[in-house]
Amino acid sequence: xxxxxxxxxxxxxxxxxxxxxxxxxRRPTLPDGVRPYLAPLLLYGVTKLVGLTVFxxxxxxxxEYQKKNPRFGxxxxxxxxxxxxxxxxxxxxxxxxxxxxxxxxxxxxxxxxVQQNSVxxxxxxxxxxxxxxEITGLGLYGSAMAVSVLASFVAAAGVYAVISTLAGARAGTxxxxxxxxxxxxxxxxxxxxxxxxxxxxxxxxYCVMKRHWVAAGLLAFLAGLNRPTSAALIGxxxxxxxxxxxxxxxxxxxxxxxxxxxxxAAPLGLLTYVTWVGLAAGDLTAYFTLQREGWAHYFDFGAxxxxxxxxxxxxxxxxxxxxxxxxxxxVQLVLALxxxxxxxxxxxxxxxxxxxxxxxxxxxxxxxxMFGNTGRYLLPVFPLLLAPAAAMSRLKWPSLTVFFxxxxxxSGWYAHFVIFELGxx
Length: 425
Prior knowledge:
The protein is mainly alpha-helical. About 65% of the residues lie in helices and about 0% in strands. Strands 1-2 form a two-stranded antiparallel ribbon. GO terms for molecular function: alpha-1,6-mannosyltransferase activity; GPI mannosyltransferase activity.
């Protein structure tokens, strides 16, 4: 028996491993760390494509966008609509840079008392647009869309990473799909900075959850160069770091240097840009003055939100920035917030998610701005998807397929057409 075994083992006719030809023909395999993200990214991408297709059909059916100003919801082609409103400003910054200086006063008596200026739009997103355009030759519009779409997939992967850590892979996949459907999701594939911000915010929160403090601090720093609402994320990172340092056990386990670094690095991006605008204008509060007097956006402790809710309840639109259809959808979303927050808190998520969510909601509801854009302003508050995704994870895939197919079609209207054509995103 031992002789037979030895003969078989040494027989040259019996291969002892894969041949060179078989190695060449073997299909490449994805790294194990990438495979879990395939399902959520596929669900996200297909859902977004369906919604975008419906949006294009509605644009053609309405037959209005070609008659509108290319800056304000119009254009020669349907895709031009995706670069209007704030998108026009981002492309201006990407092309020409900033023209900082003292704020220019307007004639008294109007809604706006200073001239609008591109410095109101933070530099990270237009900087990425310009960089991609220089490298690829896609042009500014093509580069802007490429950045937004790619960032949206990175954001969906981040949403999956956070939710799957807390509620399992199935819930994480569903959460990524839900992020494609939420009100305001139409700006994810448009010349808007939300996709970049959510990509940064989701992975920043994930890094805090995993105690990767250096990465969390760097991501919070980048967030501060992208949107002023990064203050909620920066505060959440700082609070999580403080709590980590305050507990002797976590301090011994994770050390001191990482949390301290995150606390210091997180606010530097936001502070640097706001300070630069102030120095260029000769007034350190210039950015906030521009937001208040050039765009009528400022924190009013919820007075404007209560005004809209009161008017809508009695069927009136006697308030600033009134847009009936977007506002009605926004009212429903605001009424759902306490329920969504309670369900999220019931699952006891990490402190960074709780702080980020609550600070973001307070900032949105406490600020005078386009009320119809509440869905867009809440788009970064992805932790609110935790409870719905966890509950839906108990459903079978046939039921989930029906839900996502129906909701994807509907999103072409409420998450795309409504904000771009019936309101102002």
